[in-house]
Amino acid sequence: FVKFANIEEDTPSYHRRYDFFVSRFSGMCHSCDHDPEIQTEIRIAGIRGIQGVVRKTVNDELRATIWEPQHMDKIVPSLLFNMQKIEDIDSRIGPPSSPTGGEKEENPALLAENCFRELLGRATYGNMNNAVRPVFAHLDHHRLWDPNEFAVSCFKIIMYSIQAQYSHHVIQEILGHLDFRKRDSPRVRAGIIQVLLEAVAIAAKGSIGPTVLEVFNTLLKHLRISVDFELGDRRSSTGSATFSTSSKESDERIVQNAIIQTIGFFGSNLPDYQRSEIMMFIMGKVPVFGTTSQSLDTSHLGDLGTRRIQIMLLRSLLMVTSGYKATTISNALPPPFLDPLLSPSLMEDSELRQLVLEILHNLIDRHDNRAKLRGIRIIPDVSDLKIKRDKISRQDVSFMKKHGQQLYRHIYLGCKEEDNVQKNFELLFTSLALTTIELANEEVVIDLIRLAIALQDIAIINEDNLPMFNRCGVMALVAAYLNFLSQMIAVPAFCQHVSKVIETRSLEAPYFLPETIFKDKCNLPKSLEKHEKDLFFLTNKIVESLGGSGYSVERLSVPYVPQVTDEDRLSRRKSIVDTVSIQVDILPGNNTEDKIDNTEEITFEALKKAIDNNGLEEQEKEKRRLVIEKFQKAPFEEIAAQCETKANLLHDRLAQILELTIRPPPSPSGTMTITAGHAHYQSVPVYEMKFPDLCVY
Fold first, then answer.
1. I want to staple 79 with a disulfide (CB 3.0 to 4.6 A). Which of 60, 112, 373, 581 is the partner?
2. Are 568 and 577 in contact (CB under 8 A)?
């Protein structure tokens, strides 16, 4: 038959069928003769017969019956059966030596593998799936997903044998089978996902086709299912901690880690334009405050399940962003990505905050400086690090004007968390340093100094009742950063002030330096109130040192206050509003003169009507949004000018009131009693004038 199969025919024979030969040769491949030599000979003959059938039929497009499922369901398992048998022997004996030509003829496994490769190499678009599906049936029937060494080797053969443009067919089949086996044991699902990882690793070098989002969507869905299973097992075993339950939980962790590894590997091998889309896609799935229905449904998982999903997705995102180099920072951090990433919903615990900062580092660090900044320390000479940097582009300057306050706010709030550990402080230091290297012009430098002074005030004033370790950690962070910043901008007077404070601390308060506070055994002070000013970085000294260097030091006298968002007001965490209750009423288009003339008599009925108004809450919400947007996007000088105008106006009005009380005008329309605190003043005449905006005062 083999000799017959090798004969080339000029004219195809349409009446000839090979069903009998397929059945007979497939049966020979499964020979179980008692004599091992005869068994091997029969199996080799069966494999050669299948190879002859394939060669005789696959090249004839008009007679493609060999690709029909009833034939593939016999041919493919027969080849895999022989490949599997030698795999079992190899796994016991050890790695096989490379076979010679004679050994290939006598080895059923190698002959079956060559036939399998030849079959797949001849597969076309229409019959690819028929050749791949029997592989899943064979692996399921023989329970070869756990352990999955044979399954991995099979799909490596498949991916390298088929034509590159058909890779996405195989990936789609694996995803479909993963959905089909979603209720199976965690180790089976992990085995299928690891096979997917190997297939994706090969396909990523070629054509992925339209399956990119499908791969990520399916994997994220199974990530949620795995977390659901894990928490369900934990709830069902409450009060009876058995070994089997803990083992199943650890198996689910294996599934989750396999999914994250696959997502990360796949994402990191995509071109940049596709990778940015995947970053947005994954970030859209993270459950945070204010997100749309695109995010994964975690309502039935509870707080613990939501946190697990957040950590898993951020770990996936961390792997996808690794090595991503955007030309401009606005491409790497567009608002739809940046806003949920910096959401307070992702600041619930230290691990979430660490992941967010590491993702930011991947995207901000475009010159691979992060490794040089690893660990928080006082760097004696920054020039020894040989930091790479370019001139700040116009696009990056624009990005910092629009979104810089979000970055500062995230760092500021991150320093105020009680559960911070050393790694959190190290990542916060790296964030400040990378922002300085990649995004800092003169205006940003001033903002970063204001932020550093505000962080120092957190530790000194301690309105949040932080533990002493956290307060000293923040002081050490500020010292390490200002030491780095002063050397980067190279202003001698500024460097001298920073060096002097650090030197004084090393002698009198070493726990304010990172080299001491982050040691295992560090003696902490009982309070910070009794410390001398020489141990602190002083704003007036910094203003003096930077005054002659072209920096707008006037802004340094304005304390840094983080912007307030709607999520802060609705978040379960202690809000920034608790400590900053300042609301400045600056709305676009509101003229000062209009406010003076816009008077309305305030009566009990008017107040009652206002309270009963159902739309008042919506109006207030819109008003807050406009105020926040104003402070986020308007230039600092414009905001300062409007605040100054408003302050001057209120000052003049108060002066008018004082003048009325001292020199009452003629022809008063009535009298009123002025009460301030516990002091009761005499009745004084007043004009028919109204000052509605003074009600606050």
1. 112
2. yes
The tally of CA atoms less than 13 A away on the side-chain side of residue 610 is 9
How large is the average pLDDT for residues 644-667? 61
Q: Are strands 675-676 and 679-680 parallel, antiparallel or unpaired?
A: antiparallel
Cα–Cα distance list, 201 to 9, 270, 303, 575 (Å): 41, 10, 35, 44
Calpha distance 17→156 (Å, rounded): 32
Task: Calculate the CA dihedral of residues 265, 268, 269, 270 and round it to 10 degrees.
Answer: 130
Distance CA 398, CA 378 (A): 31
pLDDT of 586 > 60? The answer is no
Task: Give the DSSP letter of residue 30.
Answer: T
- Give 606-617 pLDDT, tens digit per residue: 555 555 554 556
Q: How far apart are CA 401 and CA 412, in angstroms?
A: 18
Residue 582 and residue 628 in contact, taking contact as beta carbons nearer than 8 Å = no
**What one-character DSSP code corresponds to residue 526?**
S
> In this structure, how many other beta carbons lie within 10 angstroms of the beta carbon of residue 585?
11
Q: Please tell me the distance from the alpha carbon of residue 454 to that of residue 464, in angstroms, as a whole number.
A: 14
- What letter does residue 182 receive in the DSSP assignment? T
- 305: confidence class by pLDDT, cuts 50, 70, 90: confident
Q: What is the 3-state secondary structure (H, E, C) of 326-387?
A: CCCHHHHCCHHHHHHHCCHHHHCCHHHHHHHHHHHHHHHCCCCCHHHHCCCCCCCCHHHHCC
- The distance of Cα 680 from the centroid of its chain, to the nearest Å, equals 60
Q: CB burial class (10 A; 0-12, 13-18, 19+) of residue 609?
A: exposed
Instruction: Give the confidence band of 687 by pLDDT, cuts at 50, 70, 90.
Output: very low
Nearest Cα residue to 481 out of 441, 517, 449: 449
- Sequence letter at residue 363: L
Place of tokens 């004679």: 102
Please state whether the predicted TM-score (pTM) of the whole model is above 0.85.
no
The set of residues, in sequence order, having a beta carbon less than 8 Å from that of 424 and lying 6+ positions away, is 350, 353, 354, 357, 414, 417
Q: Are 272 and 325 in contact (CB under 8 A)?
A: yes
- The structure tokens listed for 636 are 């600092």
The residue with tokens 């080339």 is 8
Residue burial 630-646, b: 16+ Cβ < 10 Å; e: rest: bbeeeebeeeeebeeeb
Bridge partners of 670, per DSSP, are: 686
